[in-house]
Amino acid sequence: MKAPVTGSLMHSSITQRHFGSPASHLRSVAFLEGLSYVVLLFVAVPLKYLGDLPIAVSVVGPVHGTLFAWLGLLVVGGLTSRDRSMGWGIKIMAAAVLPFGIFVIDRGLRAEVNDQGRETVSGGE
Q: Angle at the Cα of 116 (from 111 to 122), degrees rounded to 5?
């Protein structure tokens, strides 16, 4: 019989799943960055200009900027320590500046996570 999952155990499982490997870390941050960009463009900016609520951009803008910088650092890390091609990095950063771009390339990022998981299970790391 399985023991009930406690809060810290569940938190650990979620952290491991989304940030446990370099590929899953990149994919998770890319998703959050893409989501923040869509919220910035399609919620915060209209609220600023149509609803006279500039606070929306003041809140969402820095969050998006931080996530974009974090994604850039992860891409640079992938280029240097994981021997990824320059095309790989350009594709991710180009997708990050296009609305919904990260969601378009997510299938490739998911495949990287799955490939890395198979390597780990088979004894790669």
A: 125
